[in-house]
């Protein structure tokens, strides 16, 4: 067994940066470990679920910090392995949206992000759980869950790919009726989507929950009433100005425990990964369950 202080897990295809990303990312990680004088090991993922397995192996080998270099899906897998375990999470954004990293105010460039992930101050943040599946940033049902499934099959990712795919799916998507209840409120409405947010941002600058905080002990629920495709497109700009909460068709509640139900089985996503659920989904916050390295004096 190789003993180490830090483990770095790299998803070489996050953000669709292959074929050279594996070598360049591994080389940079080794360089920064050497520069900082840290005993660490670097490993590459080889498919869905492998980041979780690698993280568990690294913890068994003595790692007290595990760094996830990839998108929100990769970070989610590593977080699942270390949540409530007293292990520190480091993050190097390497996906196409990077909503979690952006929400925390992490550096976008790999070298400074690596330095922060290895040596930055720590911050305790919440995580969430939906249908017993952990999420670190956002989860949801409705259009965003549908679109997450579409995005996962795109050959080319980025702002334009997401925008064009979103328009195409928007034209044919049908809303559903949901009942949403928290420990504070309850309502039933036809909704285009219902998003549960631990952090403020989907990714790429799209702010779905402007008032969400990673360390407030609660989750924000955002429900958007159905509108015509043209109206929804016109209002989408509100996502990028951080003012979606000003729209009359958007409803916000927050709480530590939430239930979402419908008259049909609900597909849902956690940090962009899609799962099949039942007619009733239980959601809860896990307060102060993750210890994350952040840049000095950054709060989100």
Tell me which CATH architecture of the largest domain applies here: Sandwich
**Largest β sheet strand count, sense and barrel closure:** 10 strands, mixed
How much is the radius of gyration in Å?
Answer: 19 Å
The quaternary state of the protein chains shown equals single chain
Beta strands, count: 18
Number of H/I helices: 9
Structural class: alpha+beta
Number of domains: 2
Overall 3D shape = globular
Mean pLDDT: 91
How widely separated are the two ends? 38 Å
Contiguous runs where pLDDT drops below 50 for at least 5 residues: none
Q: The CATH topology of the largest domain is what?
A: Tumour Suppressor Smad4
Compact description:
The protein has 2 domains: 6-120, Rossmann fold (3-Layer(aba) Sandwich), CATH 3.40.50.10330; 133-287, Sandwich (Tumour Suppressor Smad4). By secondary structure, the chain is an alpha+beta fold.
What can you tell me about this protein's structure?
It is built from nine helices and 18 strands. The model has no long low-confidence stretch (mean pLDDT 91). Strand 3 (65-70), helix 3 (72-82) and strand 4 (88-93) form a beta-alpha-beta unit. The chain folds into two domains: 6-120, Rossmann fold (3-Layer(aba) Sandwich); 133-287, Tumour Suppressor Smad4 (Sandwich), CATH 2.60.200.40. Helix content is 29%, strand content 34%. With 300 residues, the protein is an alpha+beta fold.
């Amino acid at each position: 067994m190789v003993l180490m202080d830090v483990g770095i897990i790299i998803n070489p295809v996050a953000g669709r940066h292959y074929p050279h990303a594996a070598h360049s990312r591994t080389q940079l990680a080794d360089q920064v470990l050497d520069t900082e004088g840290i005993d660490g090991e670097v490993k590459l993922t080889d498919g869905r679920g492998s980041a979780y397995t690698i993280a568990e192996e690294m913890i068994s080998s003595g790692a007290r910090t595990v760094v996830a270099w990839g998108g929100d899906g990769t970070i989610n897998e590593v977080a699942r392995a270390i949540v409530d375990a007293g292990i520190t999470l480091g993050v190097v954004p390497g996906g196409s949206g990077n909503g979690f990293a952006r929400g925390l105010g992490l550096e976008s460039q790999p070298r400074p992000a690596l330095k922060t992930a290895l040596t930055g101050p720590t911050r305790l943040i919440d995580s969430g759980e939906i249908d017993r599946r952990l999420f670190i940033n956002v989860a949801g049902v409705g259009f965003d869950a549908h679109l997450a499934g579409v995005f996962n099959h795109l050959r080319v990712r980025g702002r334009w790919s997401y925008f064009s795919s979103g328009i195409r799916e928007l034209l044919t998507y049908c809303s559903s009726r949901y009942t949403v209840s928290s420990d504070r409120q309850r309502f039933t409405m036809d909704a285009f989507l219902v998003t549960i947010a631990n952090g403020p941002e989907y990714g790429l600058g799209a702010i779905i929950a402007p008032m969400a905080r990673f360390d407030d002990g609660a989750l924000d629920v955002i429900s958007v009433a159905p509108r015509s495709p043209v109206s929804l497109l016109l209002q989408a700009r509100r996502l990028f100005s951080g003012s979606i909460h000003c729209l009359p068709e958007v409803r916000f509640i927050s709480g530590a425990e939430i239930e979402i139900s419908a008259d049909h089985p609900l597909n849902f996503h956690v940090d962009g990964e899609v799962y099949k659920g039942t007619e009733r989904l239980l959601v809860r916050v896990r307060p102060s369950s993750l210890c994350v390295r952040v840049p000095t004096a950054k709060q989100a």
